[in-house]
Specification:
little secondary structure
Length: 113
Amino acid sequence: MLFLRGQGMNERGTVLAAVGEDRRALIRIVGQNDRTNHLGKAGEIKDDYVPVGATGFRLKDTSGLKPGDTVEVVRPCTQAWIERLGMRSLAAPGRLAARLETRQPRIALGPGS
């Protein structure tokens, strides 16, 4: 998790601005990719449908998980999804899918949470 704090430049808050003509990152965050899968397996979502903005979902098997564990939710971007959205022409096959896959860390809360 990352928090940026500022003093605020006006009533709208802090404004970060990059100046110049070249393209570069305004903020760069680095670190080690040292996450591990202590269970050695991926879980399957039990729900048939999980809508955008959902705050939870059910897993088929929760053995080995306990409330407070960090889990990584991966939303793959498949070629079928790209074609259904009409985005096939945006990039070379496979490259767009790799860029659109999302990985989000979440905290396991437990049954009924």
